[in-house]
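Sequence in, structure out. Go.
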Amino acid sequence: MTAMGSSILFIGAGRMAEAVIAGIAADRESPFERITVANKSNQEKRDRLAAEYGVHATDDWLQVIQNHDVIVLAAPPSAHGDLLNAVAPLWKGQLIVTLAAGIDPEYMEARLPAEAPVCWIMPNTAAQIGESMTTFVCGNAVTSAHRPLIEGLLQAIGPAEELTAAQVHELTAVTGSAPAFMYYIASALQEAAAATGISEEQAQRLVVQMMKGSAAMLATGKEPKDLMQQVASPGGSTAEGLHVLETYHVDRIIKQAVEAVNRHAGGNT
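Output:
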């Protein structure tokens, strides 16, 4: 099996589906020659995706599923039971991928033919600019012949790590949901900056570049605690700000937020 010239069908056209579609459409080296998106409930959204990213659109994926090499299930976790039951009798060798939190290979394999290759991919919305940090796990029937298809999907959306299903379950909150936590912090910092009298646009530029620079420093491999010490001199003003964060146990709150995401994701399966 060669990945080049392959076709991919997205069943669902939500935010994550759009992010991945955008990443694939922007990747000049993508092996997917044909991208189709299906979304029966929101024709306007489906048609916009078709126009914006140059993909094909359909309101009846049942009629086109057998014309695609990869089937991406981009529906909510709660819809996957019925969706997989509908896919099972139509399966003709396609690689089945899900983007849904909590839907691991074991769940999919229990509802599909025994020889069906499945893959659970957990990207984040930065996929749309090729900067997702994606975790994924492959099912028992995935062979070396399916790897080029999986790699073709992943390469379009950013770095990826192959893990165990248990690890993907636990880390979805960090790699998939935590960007929202970062945006929450960015919003608070922008409000603090704007309160000094500068414009909202200036506040945004200041905060975005600060976060970009901080991420670049982390990417050098230095430990976060070491970088904190570089910024915060003992007894200085930065140390005073860190003391407030420590007083309110912000580190503990972030861990609790991660735990809440994992509990909710586990309850949706």
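Check: The chain is about 50% helix and 15% strand. The chain has a mean pLDDT of 93.
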